[in-house]
Amino acid sequence: MTVLDLAQAPARPPLTRLALVELRKMTDTRAGRWLLAIIALVAVATVVVFMSVRPADEQSAGQLFALSQIGVGLLLPVVGILAVTGEWSQRTALTTFALVPQRLRVLTAKLLAAVVLATGFVLLGLALGVLGRALGGVLGVSSGDWDLPVRAVASMLLVEIATVLIGVAFGALLMNTPVAIVLYFVLPTVWTTVGSMVKALRSASAWLDTNRAFEPLTGDTPASGVEWARAGTAVAVWMVVPLVIGAYRLMRREVK
Amino acid sequence: MIEVERLTKRYGPATVVEDVSFVCRPGTVTGFLGPNGAGKSTTMRMLCGLTPATSGTATVLGVPFTSLPNPGRHVGVLLDASAQHAGRTGRETLALTARILGVPAARADEMLDTVGLAGKAAGRRVGDYSLGMRQRLGIAQALIGDPSVLVLDEPANGLDPEGIYWMRTLLRDFADRGGAVLLSSHLLHEVEAVADTLVVIAGGRVVASGTKSKLLAPSGRTFVRALDPAALYSALVGAGLPVVRREPPADGGGEAFVVEAQGEAVGRAAAASGVVLLELRQASGGGLEELFLTLTGRQTGPATTPSVPQEALR
């Protein structure tokens, strides 16, 4: 009997290649393309609407950039969710894990691809901020400053990355598209509502509500240590926990 | 080379695959046969590391599937042709696989050409493909890494007769070039034409395995029908000829019998008792066909004597 010499066998695909493949999988289906196009359109539309209705002195490049990310932060997690749940709803997991049996490498590749995608949309936002301000200047509707502080951009990037990764984590935990999407949107709202109604939860909510915890990070003033700790706690609860449980489920689950 | 040893899968109290062992050698096509729900797909998924086995081992080229650094370069797997993203084109599906495997992107178009999906079909979304086209795409995906082993679950499903003939030729060529093919089906005649070795599974257990020529060899049995079945039966018993099965009456004649004896002996026994024979011929098919029909529940009538010669088939 001939046993395959593993040292001579073709090498396993590097993680960067798997991440690029996952990025391509997010963009090569009709549904995926539409979703990304809509997110980009929402970003552009938000900037355009703001420019046409607000006073000129409010229209700084930084403000336009921040505005462009509202829709991105809302919708991009859906891309993250679909990247994971699509494997089960479309049953492509059967091929994916037959080609790459190390399932956690696939999950890692999806996380990396989501980070690249989030970064891409932040870059798009920067371009929109600068272009919007320039165009506004030419049209005489914008007179705000051109400043794009590194701190604000970096914080926004972190928030966007955390947000899309929470999406991936929800998808990994629930492995079901409608359930993951509904819970992703409903749970934080429920939490915010309950947190504001129940006195005892109000202080906890500041730590666990991503909407509240992430807000100071993208504000005009640098976030304090406590504010960073709150954001970190929210990320741990909404991203790390579901991701760990999801990874565990993925390792053990039967692919069929 | 595929080696499956005592593979078992239990879901709670239910045993879906029990103690399944077989070997699929280079240069051969192994037909993995069994009725729907016999455990074929579960066995194949365990082989590919997609379903954890309760016990037993499975290796490909001497190592567990999941230990292969880049499995697609050694094993072409097609477990379900419909398990493709409906929104992706055929070409893109293959391009992604080529990328993961690290083979040139041109392999995708090459494979589309091989399976007859080149041109317009390649640019269509898989959701718009017929089942036959998805099977072809799945086979292209299995072949793209130039593997030496193929694992195909019901690849003939949805293929038209021409497609089935094409696939047989392709698999035969693959095996003749030294490849090992494991091919499952719930239809005996589908794999009969291409397989060298057969493994029959039912209720999660291997009920027959061996070379096709051995399993499908004509039996030494005789089918006999007389005007008076009772008289024939006494004559057969009187002559010491074992009746292995009764066949229901057909075409106005009486009950018929399948006898473990040559035609001449049966004829002589009937003649000696003066029984008028209506039919006397070699019992159709080999033991495997009978066994398979029994398993798939398509036998025309109930067998009064349990006659499946399992030991003989092993």
Please sum up the structure shown.
Chain B: Pfam families: ABC_tran. The complex is a heterodimer of chains A (256) and B (314). Chain A has 256 residues and is mainly α.
Throw out a few tags for this protein.
heterodimer, A: 256 residues, mainly alpha, 10 helices, B: 314 residues, alpha/beta, Rossmann fold, Alpha-Beta Plaits, 2 domains, six-stranded mixed β-sheet, four-stranded antiparallel β-sheet, 32% helix, elongated, disordered C terminus
CATH class of the largest domain in chain B: Alpha Beta
The 3D shape of chain B can be described as elongated
Domain tally of chain A:
1
Rounded average pLDDT of chain A? 91
Note the quaternary state here.
heterodimer
What is the ordering of alpha helices and beta strands of chain A? HHHHHHHHHH
Low-confidence runs of chain A (pLDDT<50, min 5 residues)?
none
User: H/E series of chain B, N to C?
Assistant: EEEHEEHHHEHEHEEHEHEEHEHH
Structural category of chain A: mainly alpha
Mean pLDDT of chain B: 88
- Put simply, the count of helices of chain B is 11
In whole angstroms, the N-to-C terminal distance of chain A is 31 Å
Strand order of the largest sheet of chain B: 5-6-7-3-8-9
Summarize the main sheet of chain B: 6 strands, mixed
Terminal CA distance of chain B: 21 Å
Q: Structural class, judged by helices and strands of chain B?
A: alpha/beta
Output the CATH topology of the largest domain in chain B: Rossmann fold
Instruction: State the low-pLDDT regions of chain B, or none.
Output: 298-314
Cα-atom Rg of chain B, whole angstroms? 24 Å
Protein name (chain A): ABC transporter permease
Organism (chain A): Actinomadura harenae
Keywords (chain A): Membrane, Transmembrane, Transmembrane helix
Pfam families (chain B): ABC_tran (PF00005)
